[in-house]
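Practice problem: predict the structure.
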Amino acid sequence: MRIATEQLADIRGGQMVEELTEALAEVVNAVIATGKKGALQLKLDINPASKGDAVVTVTDEIKKTVPQEKRTGTLMFATPSGSLQRQNPRQTDLPLVSAPATPPTLQSTPTESPSLRVVGGN
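Answer:
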């Protein structure tokens, strides 16, 4: 009896095993990224090619459940016409203007430290 993995490699000339390998990697990576459960199913339908012959047709189906990261919502405002927009239509715009560019006033610091004197010394 041939090993099952060798038989699977013959289905669709090895293309099924390649697709299964890619699907498995996709599910595993998504499980690691999301911390959520994933699944992979391989279904094989085996049908007789004709009655009495030892010939069968094998059809495969690969199903995968890839966990998705939770998507964040976007806060939108509804207009009276039913459209959505990011800005609140009932809030007026503030007329913003640029402040005049004036050079800052710099103060110099003394380069010498002030002399210290002793008060009420013993």
